[in-house]
Specification:
Keywords: Hydrolase, Signal. By secondary structure, the chain is an alpha+beta fold. Helices cover 25% and strands 16% of the residues.
Length: 357
């Protein structure tokens, strides 16, 4: 029998750590009224569904749906406070789970921080930081690829070869900026930051982001590829940081102007993609492994201003400024294996809408 925990009461959480078109702004948004959980405490304030005037009868169908769809953990924050926190299948508030490609947005955040510190410029070519020969493309074609192309999935490198980002797997297909393709080459941004900062990626990440907002978690390197693992509350902390325009209380961690760029269309080939963030409310979108342009919004049932970190097998962070929400989901694939978007997103938002409206 799966275990379900409701936050109609306070649930204690211990952070997992191995060391310690434009989107509309929300109405009356202010970090002065936004709640941030303490950095060095397990406390996290809550709101009830009744306090918000939401539809309490819609909670049970949402819970049943999440349980049926292989969910491990699920949270809804409103203005930073926890309204719903659910755990299933022996998962708890202290259990770590992988972010998969939802963790790409952590790389985006760190890239913005490194640029603000003057370590990098995302308009510079990648070879300025990694040297030449980091791909198998000719020098002329390799030098077309900027850090911004890595963040926007428009490097022009062949996305069909595999996950490994060694030079032999990074082969030319099109000039940078002329083709959008979901590609693990974004990982080279982690190498760029490590080289520019003269620190390892995890050390720079921990000091510049993780520890400043009280996240737990660890980068796990598998086959020379970093995947972030943490509990759901740490994922929710990051989502809250993004909702708060990159600030944690009065500490501006990610530059607001950079984050605004990151959460709006980064190129015109796939307007539903920013800097490793997926964007709702656009007229067309493209998906991993395909060059087909699809008409319509990414997640029709979700608010148009929603943007999301989407990871393999339905790891999710949804940020919705107009509704003052951050929503996170961890677990196994809801149905079949997927790399980012799935039918689960739209079906889940149908259930969320019934709760919040």
């Amino acid at each position: 029998m799966k275990t379900i925990t409701y936050l109609s009461f306070f649930v204690l959480a211990i952070f997992f750590s191995c060391s310690s078109d434009e989107s509309p702004a929300p109405d009356d948004f202010s970090n002065d009224t936004l709640y941030f959980p303490p950095i060095n405490s397990n406390e996290w304030e809550t709101k009830s569904i009744g306090d918000l005037g939401w539809n309490n009868t819609a909670l049970r169908p949402l819970v049943d749906y999440l349980e049926a769809k292989n969910t491990k953990s699920f949270m809804i924050l409103h203005e930073g406070k926890i309204v719903v926190e659910l755990y299933f299948d022996n998962h708890t508030s202290t259990t770590a789970w992988y972010w998969a490609s939802a963790g790409k947005t952590l790389t985006t955040a760190i890239s913005g921080i490194a640029q603000e510190e003057g370590l990098i410029n995302i308009d510079n070519k990648v070879s300025d930081y990694l040297g030449t020969g980091w791909t198998s493309a000719t020098l002329e074609k390799e030098n077309l690829i900027t850090c911004k192309h890595l963040l926007s999935m428009s490097s022009g490198l062949d996305d069909s070869i595999g996950d490994n980002v060694s030079p032999e797997n990074l082969q030319y297909t099109a000039d940078a900026g002329t083709r959008w393709a979901y590609h693990n080459v974004y990982k080279k941004m982690q190498d760029v930051v490590a080289e520019a900062s003269n620190q390892t990626w995890p050390v720079y990440f921990n000091s510049k982001l993780r520890d400043r907002i009280g996240m737990g978690g660890i980068w796990v390197n598998t086959n020379d590829f970093n995947v972030y693992w943490s509990n759901a509350r740490s994922m929710a902390r990051f989502g809250l940081l993004i909702y708060a325009n990159g600030a944690w209380k009065n500490d501006q961690i990610i530059p607001e102007n950079f984050l605004n760029e990151a959460t709006n269309s980064s190129q015109n080939i796939n307007p539903s993609y920013g800097y490793l963030w997926w964007l709702n409310g656009k007229s067309t979108y493209r998906l991993p492994g395909s060059q087909i342009e699809l008409n319509g919004e990414l997640v029709p049932n979700a608010p148009a201003d929603m943007y999301a970190a989407l990871g393999k097998n339905d790891q999710k962070i949804y940020v919705v400024p107009s509704k003052k929400l951050v929503v996170v989901r961890m677990g196994n694939a809801a149905e079949s294996e997927n790399f980012a978007l799935s039918s689960f997103d739209n079906d889940l938002w149908e259930k969320i809408n019934a709760l919040i409206e």
